[in-house]
């Protein structure tokens, strides 16, 4: 199958068994590992960072009230940093996924739907 | 006499006119969308053809409720920094949706949260449980929004005790406001389905963000774009001084000489913070938005749009809240509304009047009032479509008809379900009007965090997870979250309680159950799983390959 005319229309249906068969494929195991490699540390990291912020807001109020300049204190800067880290992680994840994840996921997707030689 | 009442009849008519223009525009959109809604995929998921930015705006619109616009601005205006704690929890929570939920849900589900939960389980018990929890979250949230809407419309139109507008006194105006919001949300959903609702939400997000951005800009311009001066003025005007800019004015209050009370106050604050961060990715009306885009990459991009818009919006509310504290002042705000919900509109009027007299003040007030109205309408519409989809797809088609209902039957049922949910919400909101229902939003987040998120994540990632685990997890989380609130000070035991001081069944010391109910929901799910021998590794393999590669996932419809 050198050409795949069906690609313009909806892809051929894949059965549940077709999907399950991919589960033990080393490329799927690799795909999963690539996803977890980013998602797990990012989740643990942002959550720890958020919990630190919450705990400091509850128990380290003197420190949070430290004035840095003018009327800007640590609490405000810490809060704004939570915004920045959220934006940053979202941006980093999109970059990572586009580079490391999407091409591989698409390869497996196409193989399941169009068969092994359909490239 | 108060600030809004001074905005004479001209201002009131202006506000009213802007409301009418916005509502007319959304009605046109809905009628248009109705012509383009043919099958169940159109109705539940808007044909899955939305672009990421469109879905991002709709996500933001779903999420930015009156509670987050007027509520957070009000909390900041009255209690300072602590309002910001809310915004941060609400925003950071989106990382869970982005990293763990959005893409996998888009790939593996079809119309509802239950599609993913029940993928490798016995359909009927799991879908029933998911529908029950979807309805609980949505109804709690709906009542809170609608009661707020009634009070707000009366306030924003400036109708006070003893005054009338279009022949309505304040009490009638509140009920009229609830009924109007209810009828509009039914109209959007029953006629326009997800396609109409999404476009309405996109327009409303623009109104809300535009209004908030303009006002924040004017406030900052007033201070020569020097945030520090603004904060200084706010702190001084509040009377609390530097403490106004630090955490602790409202949450986790320290009670002098009572270490136990202090401890519970702080744990209660942490409990709220946990419900906020884990709740978002379990809210049914947020989850079903991921089905409206063509694939998982578009779902990811739309969450990024949502994060950008929502984050910007919360930074704006920070300026609005401190601006209201500095320019309007706590006394004038509490005179109008003790909870501070009118801080942003009052700020609009004050800033406008400073710039160009009462006419500009009225125009800005009308604009912010419309923005608030947009915030309410878009959130309630999202909640109604989530409820009606779950009732039609999960309860009616899968449980009652055992999957035998046609597309057409499911859509017709969904439309009637939207009307039913809307009518029930209107009636409950009218009865709940005089009660203090502010806790319901936090409760909705706590239920979503305790019942929905743990089961959702376990079904995507834990091979052994099964029907008994999913059912135990949902009901365990749901019952523990609601149960703990019933036995908390929210319900009884002090003058501000729902049942008043006379009844005292409060043995649970925190008004936010999350710290206990989230782990409890998770434990129920795990223990439930282990008590049953059901295990379907083949279905798990199918689910995970589908979730991660998108193979076999639902496609966009081409008409």
What does this structure look like?
Chain A is mainly alpha-helical. Chain A has one domain (14-114). Chain A is 72% helix and 4% strand. Chain A is built from four helices and two strands. Chain A has a two-stranded antiparallel sheet. Chain B has one domain (3-35, 42-549): Sodium/glucose cotransporter (Up-down Bundle). In chain B, α7 (94-108) crosses α21 and α12 (259-279) crosses α20 (514-531). Chains A and B meet through α1, α2, β2 and α4 of A and α6, α7, α11, α12 and α14 of B.
Summarize, please:
The complex is a heterodimer of chains A (119) and B (559). Helix content of chain A is 72%, strand content 4%.
Number of domains of chain A: 1
The number of helices of chain B is: 21
Radius of gyration of chain A: 23 Å
Major beta-sheet overview of chain A:
2 strands, antiparallel
How many independent structural domains of chain B? 1
Spatial order of the strands forming the largest sheet of chain A: 1-2
Do you know the CATH topology of chain B?
Answer: Sodium/glucose cotransporter
- Mean pLDDT across all amino acids of chain A: 89
- The helix/strand class of chain A is mainly alpha
Write down the overall geometry of chain B. Answer: globular
**Integer average pLDDT of chain B:** 90
Oligomeric state: heterodimer
Number of strands of chain A: 2
| SS-derived structural category of chain B | mainly alpha
**Model regions low in confidence, pLDDT < 50 over at least 5 residues of chain A:** 1-6
**What would you say the CATH architecture of chain B is?**
Up-down Bundle
Low-confidence stretches of chain B: 1-7
Beginning-to-end CA distance, first to last residue of chain B: 58 Å
Share of β-strand residues of chain B: under 5%
């Amino acid at each position: 199958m050198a050409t795949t005319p069906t690609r313009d229309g909806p892809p051929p249906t894949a059965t549940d068994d077709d999907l399950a068969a991919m589960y033990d494929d080393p490329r799927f195991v690799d795909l999963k590992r690539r996803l977890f490699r980013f998602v797990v540390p990012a989740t643990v990291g942002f959550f720890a960072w958020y919990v630190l912020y919450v705990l400091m807001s509850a128990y380290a109020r003197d420190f949070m009230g430290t004035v840095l300049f003018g009327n800007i204190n640590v609490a405000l800067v810490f809060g704004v940093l939570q915004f920045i880290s959220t934006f940053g992680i979202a941006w980093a994840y999109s970059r990572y996924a586009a580079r490391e994840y999407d091409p591989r996921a698409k390869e497996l997707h196409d193989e399941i739907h169009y068969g092994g030689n359909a490239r | 006499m108060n600030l809004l009442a001074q905005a004479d009849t001209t201002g009131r008519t202006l506000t009213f006119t802007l409301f009418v223009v916005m509502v007319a525009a959304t009605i046109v959109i809905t009628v248009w969308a109705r012509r383009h809604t043919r099958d169940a995929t159109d109705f539940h998921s808007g044909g899955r053809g939305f672009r990421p930015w469109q879905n991002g705006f709709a996500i933001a619109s779903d999420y930015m409720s009156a509670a987050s616009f007027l509520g957070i601005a009000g909390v900041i205006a009255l209690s300072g920094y602590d309002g910001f704690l809310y915004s941060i929890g609400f925003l950071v929570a989106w990382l869970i949706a982005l990293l763990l939920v959005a893409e996998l849900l888009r790939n593996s589900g079809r119309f509802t949260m239950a599609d993913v939960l029940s993928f490798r389980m016995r359909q009927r018990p799991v879908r029933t449980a998911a529908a029950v929890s979807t309805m609980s979250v949505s109804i709690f949230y709906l009542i809170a929004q609608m009661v707020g809407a009634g009070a707000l419309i009366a306030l924003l139109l400036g109708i006070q005790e003893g005054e009338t507008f279009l022949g309505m006194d304040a009490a009638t105006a509140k009920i009229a406001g609830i009924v109007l919001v209810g009828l509009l949300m039914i109209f959007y959903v029953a006629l326009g389905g997800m396609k109409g609702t999404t476009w309405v939400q996109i327009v409303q997000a623009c109104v809300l963000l535009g209004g908030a951005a303009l006002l924040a800009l004017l406030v900052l311009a007033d201070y020569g774009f020097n945030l520090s001066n603004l904060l200084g003025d706010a702190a001084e005007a509040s009377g609390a001084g530097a403490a106004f800019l630090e955490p602790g004015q409202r949450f986790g209050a320290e009670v002098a000489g009572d270490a136990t009370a202090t401890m519970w106050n702080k744990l209660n604050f942490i409990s709220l913070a946990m419900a906020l961060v884990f709740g978002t990715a379990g809210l049914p009306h947020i989850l079903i938005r991921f089905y409206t885009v063509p694939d998982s990459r578009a779902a990811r991009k739309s969450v990024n749009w949502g994060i950008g818009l929502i984050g910007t919006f919360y930074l704006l509310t920070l300026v609005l809240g401190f601006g209201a504290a500095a320019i309007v002042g706590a006394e004038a705000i509490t005179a109008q509304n003790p909870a501070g919900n009118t801080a942003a509109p009052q700020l609009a009027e004050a800033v406008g009047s400073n710039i160009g007299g009462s006419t500009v003040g009225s125009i800005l007030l009308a604009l912010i009032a419309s923005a608030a109205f947009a915030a309410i309408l878009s959130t309630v519409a999202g909640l109604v479509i989530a409820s009606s989809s779950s009732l039609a797809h999960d309860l009616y088609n899968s449980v009652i008809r055992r999957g035998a209902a046609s597309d057409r039957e499911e859509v017709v049922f969904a439309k009637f379900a939207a009307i039913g949910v809307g009518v029930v919400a209107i009636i409950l909101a009218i009865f709940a009007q005089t009660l203090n229902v502010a806790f319901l939003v936090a409760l909705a987040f706590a239920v979503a965090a305790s019942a929905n998120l743990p089961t959702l994540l376990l079904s995507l990632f834990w091979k052994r997870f099964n029907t008994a685990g999913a059912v135990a997890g949902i009901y365990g989380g749901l019952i523990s979250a609601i149960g703990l609130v019933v036995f908390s000070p929210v319900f009884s035991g002090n003058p501000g309680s729902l049942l008043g001081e006379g009844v005292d069944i409060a043995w649970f010391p925190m008004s936010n159950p999350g710290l206990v109910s989230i782990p409890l929901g998770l434990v129920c799910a795990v223990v439930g799983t282990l008590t049953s021998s059901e295990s379907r590794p083949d279905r798990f393999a199918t689910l995970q390959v589908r979730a991660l590669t998108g193979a076999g996932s639902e496609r966009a419809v081409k008409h």
